Amino acid sequence: MKDDYRIIRSLGKGGMSRVFLAVDRRIARKWTIKEICCNDKEYILNSIYREVSLLKEIENDRIAKIVDVYSDDNNVFLVMEYIEGTALSDICRERPAFAARMARKWIIEIAEILDELHSMSPPVIYRDLKPSNIIVKSNGKLSLIDFGAAKIKSDEPKDIYPTGTVNYSAPEQLEGYTDELTDIYSFGKTIEKLSSNDIFIKKIVSDCIKEDRSERPQSINSILKRLRLHRNIKYYGLQTTLIIIILAAAVLYSVNIYGLKKTEAESYHFELTKEKLERLDRAAPEELASVVSEMDDYSESCENEERGRIKYSCAKKALIELNDYELAYKYLCELDTDKYPDVKYLRIISEELSKFSDEPERLNKTLIEYKKYIENNENGEQKKDDLAYVASLLVLEAERRQ
Fold first, then answer.
1. Can you tell me whether residue 12 is helix, strand or coil?
2. 378-397, pLDDT tens digit by residue?
3. Bond preceding residue 122 cis, omega within 30 of 0
4. Within 10 A of 204 (CB to CB), how many other CB atoms are there?
5. Concatenated DSSP letters for 51-108?
6. Which residues of 170-198 are buried (b: 16+ CB within 10 A; e: fewer)?
7. Which helix (H) or strand (E) holds 113?
8. Buried b / exposed e along 258-272 (16+ C-beta atoms within 10 A)
9. For the whole model, what pTM was predicted?
């Protein structure tokens, strides 16, 4: 491997390749490097150079770019854009309910990415579509990574070297034949992992993974149109006959599209924020500081309401569990006291604790006022939790005074 790159850690391996996270010593930037072991190095290099030249024309943040290709005596190395996020395979395995809730949105995104590749001139055949090659970024958008197996479509469909992953590859792909229809088969196998109970998705999967390739949808674009039509019909709550659908089609594709996309984005962020806040609550003491920092970074991609929820939760964690009063004060100063009325008390408390003042009157007075505020404005379990929180603040003050 070139001296320009320092390996940070392994990201995985499979078949004839290994993947690493590396940093470029020259510009201090992270890259993904794929090492391909091969007998016919010249063929692999020539093939990759053709794909790279075409992929460089794509200006799409949902497709990881290949930025460098080089070789040594035995191996070929691809240097690719490193995409921060979580592999879709990890989400499907660790949070299946969350994956199922996001399934329809993500399936459309995957189809859109594949449609862009197939619409190029000449078309790019990805050849290794699977959940582990799809990254869910912090903003909820998907990116396709690892173009090491991709090829430009040619008149000769037979590949010299078989590619793909068992359980995701079409029967003919295992024999070395790849084109748009083998990508469609892999698309079906991939989206099958997202949701097993959605009748509409099950139908799409069933159509895509037909062993007889002539029975599969003949283009990803036709699948994409079907997905978008179903999404729009469901969104608008239309229970109509075929005639009404045909008459309403123009309206369905033109009216309120901005509002539809906004609703999808808000839905995603609400679910993702919920997941992250639950993780924050469960964080062990030794990992809490890094989780709070991660939450702070994530909040920058959120709308105001969700950003507020995150900052509020991080502020309380910083104040009570991390005892980082300056950090808590920073978060609290970013919050709107009209939406979070108790923030005016917490700001004073964190400010005073950070000063370690020998005059505790202002802090004690604020703690008493905060306790009265909770008793007068909240009910039930929430009041118990917040009174316990005040008790924690009183303990902090007592320890501080010792």
1. strand
2. 565 565 566 666 666 666 65
3. yes
4. 21
5. HHHHHTT---TTBPPEEEEEE-SSEEEEEEEPPPSEEHHHHHHH-HHHHHHHHHHHHH
6. bebbeeebbbbbbbbbbbbbbbbbbbeeb
7. helix 96-118
8. eeeeeebeeebbebb
9. 0.57
